[in-house]
């Protein structure tokens, strides 16, 4: 799966406080479920 990290950062910056808390909670659950970190590559 490939994600445009610049777009993700832009989308996150446009969230309000409540939406950011929900987003962070969702990602925390996903990372915990993975068990081990994945490799993330940023566009150069």
Automatic annotation (TrEMBL):
Superkingdom assignment: Bacteria
Name by which UniProt lists this protein: Uncharacterized protein
Organism listed in the record: Rheinheimera pacifica
């Amino acid at each position: 799966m490939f994600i445009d990290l610049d777009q993700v950062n832009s989308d996150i910056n446009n969230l309000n406080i409540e939406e950011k808390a929900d987003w962070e909670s969702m990602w925390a659950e996903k990372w915990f479920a993975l068990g081990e970190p994945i490799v993330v590559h940023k566009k150069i």
